[in-house]
Amino acid sequence: MIDNIKMIILWVLDHLSEVRTKRKIVVFKSDDWGSVRIRSKEDQKALIKKGLKITNRFDQYDSLETNDDLEMLFEVLTKYKDQYGNHPVITAVTNVANPDFTRIQDSAFKEYFFETIDRTYQRYPDSDRVMRLVQEGIRNKIFIPQSHGREHVQVNWWMRELSIENSPARKYFENEFFFIPSCDLLHTYRNRDLSAAFDVLDKNDLEVQKEIIYSGLDIFEQLFGYKSTTFTPPAMFYSPSIEISLFQKGIKWLDVGRIFKVPMPDGSEKWQVNYLGRKKKSGLKVLVRNAMFEPNISETDNGVSRCLYDIERAFSVGQPAIISNHRVSFIGRLDVSNRNKGLRALNMLLSKIVHKWPEVEFLSTNDIVHSLK
Glycoside hydrolase family 57 N-terminal domain: from which residue to which, for each copy (predicted)? Predict the structure, then answer.
């Protein structure tokens, strides 16, 4: 019954969209690049001893990308070409900064500081060439960053938790970990964790977030040499109040969920319904994902069949297939077998795509939003 209702809603949203094309376009959107998560296997063990329960694939496998992660991902991507000779391209939805843990601690947890990801890569073992590899990916049109905001944490809320001595946030801070489960927080934030950087409870949150948007997009341009045209809020939660700031900084398209609750600065929430190409009052247009490829969600399923089904469905209604993915699919710092599984699945998926749809076009998000104008 629930599945039937879901299919009806998706059908309605597909047909609300004015975006129609006969082209077989495939776009991969992969979130969380640049952000730290679990620093090392040793840190993961220490966090578990401190009470962290590993209940999701991110805390089990996710960590900052390594040189090997990118090199091996690029190797798979460059094996395949579309009808025009273009390789599959990962639109890397990227956080451009992480907390500066040393300076925050030196301030006695009274002030927030951040470091840009080029510094983070230099601090982490086996990530010292990542920035160069990203630039190589950009030049070869196989790995194109777009904005995921500045950092992947709600700064105000995290600092509030850190201000309390002996809090779980302080314990996890020792291992450079801020993805704190809601059950370990000493205050209530809509019963959510701290990963949604643009979640809000009051107007003070909005003021801080405006500065974060501006500095984050400036840093993005400094790091990669171009402006981001799309914006994906971390964890997808955001207040519509930030849309004007995004538009003023050059963002054209907002990548959000089809149906979700948006937090408001008065503490309330409102339902928002989206479809591809929806025009918002702020001037932004909406980009929604209509396919999924997450090979490590299940131990027994690599996600390929589900993704092929989603692609076929998108094509059947005359829309590009915009595939949702996360970095954790291809990361091996904590567990090499996770990366191996993800890359094998990606290889299989790409092989089946080019075989089933020889007329396929592999585009980045930047490419597709220009074609959807």
Answer: 216-292
